[in-house]
Design brief:
By secondary structure, this protein is an alpha+beta fold. It is 37% helix and 28% strand. Bound molecules: 8-demethyl-8-dimethylamino-flavin-adenine-dinucleotide (RFL) and P-hydroxybenzoic acid.
């Protein structure tokens, strides 16, 4: 079989890329390791930058988001003795949209089904080859049979644990990594959110985040040590700890209820350079990971997709290689800015096990400085709503 762009990974980046390319008449095949049900059961991101919102509209997959998504003009930041609200709208005339990654992925699958794109779920041993030639191909297996897709380009949209990045020879890639000595314990519950806006809370017992998906679906997170076991966190313990860490007024009004999902995710910053190898182009988590504190992971995946889509469009429409040649360096500029912001937010809001009293004073001082400075809030807002593409 032959296509123009073979896409490895049917998560948000793979599906959005496919959708955008199909819209301009470029053929794609998407190869996804998991079943569709599995992909649609993963609970992940919740905050879309406005640039992401606009790209989803351009891709023709925004009708449900525009109906059910919650546009937020600001967010609250709380420490044990200080609180402030960052007004995104007033600071930089932009907002964010609360709309779950799961729902966005569902919208993309539905739109792709309508177009009739070939999406192969449960594809095993997917492997891209001949990437340094003009005729690369991707092989895979399904139900015991072997297949091969010849193509012009391969998009590696297969996330952090995918195969794509690893086929770039070790001596041709550099990896930059930082791990953090804690994870996030996340709970989804069918309860009304405690606040109309997100609350990011710095507390001596650790960070907490109150987020949401809809008016009846709350998403909460707690910073926990890396060694923490999920089975040690029954719902009662989770709610009690959340209430300790949220500001008192919010804690008093938290509606508790059974969790419908609970998981622990480690925090990591990671960047692979370059994001291109011959005819292979990496997009999203396959090339970089950020800690979720800045709500940037999905949004970065979306901006990579946008850059790559533009480059491919230039190639097929104008016969120009220019965009493809510039893809990696262009994408990496935005990637590093988001990596920096996510690292900064993580340092600002988490207690570190080895934090000295000096470090704590600096952290509290920085928090209070942002609370008191319009300039600092503007910088936070401009990064949070998303730097321009
Ligand atoms: P994904 O979503 O991991 O999708 C990759 C897909 O590739 C498949 N795959 C393969 N397919 C074929 N062959 C192989 N060898 C394959 N290996 C893997 C996988 O099954 C999967 O379906 O990567 P993608 O598309 O780049 O999307 C990235 C986002 O998922 C990620 O950045 C965000 O979820 C990060 N993130 C957040 N980002 C935000 O922008 N805002 C947020 O509020 C936010 N919150 C979060 C988050 C991530 C979290 N976790 C669980 C790490 C909150 C959490 C808790
Ligand atoms: C979420 O709702 O899942 C969420 C929101 C904000 C973040 C991270 C995750 O910074």
């Amino acid at each position: 079989m032959r296509t123009q762009v073979a896409i490895i990974g049917g998560g948000p980046s793979g599906l959005l890329l496919s959708q955008l390319l199909n819209k301009i008449g470029v053929e794609t095949v998407v190869l996804e390791r998991q079943t569709r049900e599995y992909v649609l059961s993963r609970i992940r991101a919740g905050v879309l930058e406005w640039g992401s919102v606009e790209l989803l509209r351009k891709a023709g997959v925004a009708s449900r988001m525009d109906k059910d998504g919650l546009a937020h003009e600001g967010a609250l930041f709380a420490s044990e003795n200080n609180q402030f609200r960052v007004d995104f709208k007033a600071m930089c005339d932009k907002m964010v949209m609360i709309y779950g990654q799961t729902e966005m992925t569902r919208d993309l699958y539905e739109a792709q089904d309508k177009i009739g794109t070939k999406i192969v779920n449960s594809a095993e041993n997917v492997f891209p080859s001949d990437l340094e030639t003009g005729s690369p191909y991707v092989s895979y297996e399904k139900e015991g049979r072997e297949y091969r897709i010849d193509c012009d380009f391969v998009a590696g949209c297969d996330g952090f644990h995918g195969i794509s990045r690893t086929v770039i020879p070790k001596n041709s890639r550099r990896e930059f990594e930082k791990t953090y000595p804690f994870g996030w314990l996340g709970v989804l519950s069918e309860t009304p959110p405690v606040s109309d806006e997100l609350i990011y809370a710095l507390h001596d017992r650790g960070f907490a985040l109150a987020s949401m998906r809809t008016a009846m679906l709350s998403r909460y997170y707690l910073q926990v040590p890396l060694a923490e076991k999920l089975q040690d966190w029954d719902d009662d313990r989770f709610w009690a700890e959340l209430k300790r860490r949220l500001p008192v007024k919010a804690a008093e009004t938290v509606t508790t209820g059974p969790s419908i999902e609970k998981s622990i995710a480690p925090l990591r910053s990671f960047v692979c350079e370059p994001m291109r190898w011959g005819r292979l182009f990496l997009c999203g988590d396959s090339a970089h990971i950020v800690p979720p504190t800045g709500a940037k992971g999905l949004n970065l995946a979306i901006s990579d997709v946008y850059y790559f889509y533009q480059a491919i469009s230039e190639f097929y429409r104008q016969g120009s290689q220019h965009g493809l040649d510039g893809y990696s360096s262009k994408a990496l500029v935005r990637v590093w800015r988001a990596v920096r912001f996510s690292w900064w937010m993580t340092n600002l809001l988490h207690r570190f096990p080895d934090q000295s009293e000096f470090d704590q004073r600096i952290q509290n001082c920085e928090f209070d400085y942002i609370a008191s400075s319009r300039a600092a809030q503007k910088s936070l807002a401009e990064n949070y709503v998303g730097l321009p593409y």
